[in-house]
Amino acid sequence: MIISTLGVIFISIIIFVLVFILCVVQIKKGYAYKHTIDTLPMEEEKTRRKE
Q1: CA-to-CA distance for 9 and 15, rounded, in angstroms?
Q2: Phi, psi of 3 (to 5 degrees)
Q3: Residue 40 and residue 51: Cα distance in Å, rounded?
Q4: What is the C-alpha radius of gyration for the chain, rounded to an integer number of angstroms?
Q5: φ/ψ of residue 4, rounded to 5
Q6: Lower CB count within 10 Å: N or C terminus of the chain?
Q7: Residues of 13-46 as b/e, b for ≥16 C-beta within 10 angstroms?
Q8: To which H or E segment does residue 45 belong?
Q9: How far apart are CA 18 and CA 10, in angstroms?
Q10: pTM for this structure?
């Protein structure tokens, strides 16, 4: 069974659209992630002493 050129182009477009949508979803998740920074042990000790 031979797939015509039009069939190959159609399948390629479908794969491209799916990969593009997955990339956009992952990029949006990355930008939505809330990054935090742990406090340094010295700063933590200073805040304990003040309390």
Answers
A1: 10
A2: -85, 135
A3: 17
A4: 25
A5: -70, 165
A6: N
A7: eeeeeeeeeeeeeeeeeeeeeeeeeeeeeeeeee
A8: helix 41-50
A9: 13
A10: 0.60
* Single-letter amino acid, residue 40: L
Tens of pLDDT along 1-51?
678 999 999 999 999 999 999 999 999 999 988 888 877 777 666 666 665
Residue for token pair 């069939």: 7
Q: Which pLDDT score, from 0 to 100, does residue 20 have?
A: 98
d(CA 7, CA 2): 10
CA distances from residue 16 to 5, 11, 12, 20 in whole angstroms, order as listed: 16, 9, 6, 6
In 1-51, DSSP assigns E strands to none
Give the angle 13-17-23 at the CA atoms, nearest 5°.
Answer: 145
